[in-house]
Design a protein that fits this description.
The chain is of the alpha+beta class and about 70 residues long. It contains one helix and two strands; from the N terminus they run αββ.
Length: about 70
């Protein structure tokens, strides 16, 4: 059930909300760390961590990221 909830949130934020029609669920998930915060039975935050070279050559910097659902 948590997996479905995480995937649903990812598609909602990255595909629907940000209007980026691309394959959000991908093979990179298998080699990533998935970190999330669950509070009162609901997922409140989620982070997928990939090693450098899997998607980009270098890790992104915090000032380059944006928070969804502000």
């Amino acid at each position: 059930e948590e997996l479905y909830e995480l995937l649903k949130i990812r598609v909602e934020v990255f595909v629907v909300e940000q209007k980026c029609p691309y394959q959000e669920i991908d093979e990179k998930d298998k080699n990533a760390y998935h970190i999330y915060l669950k509070e009162a039975g609901q997922i409140k935050a989620y982070l997928r961590v990939l090693y450098p070279g899997i998607l980009f050559e270098e890790a992104s910097r915090s000032e380059e990221r944006r928070v969804g659902k502000e």
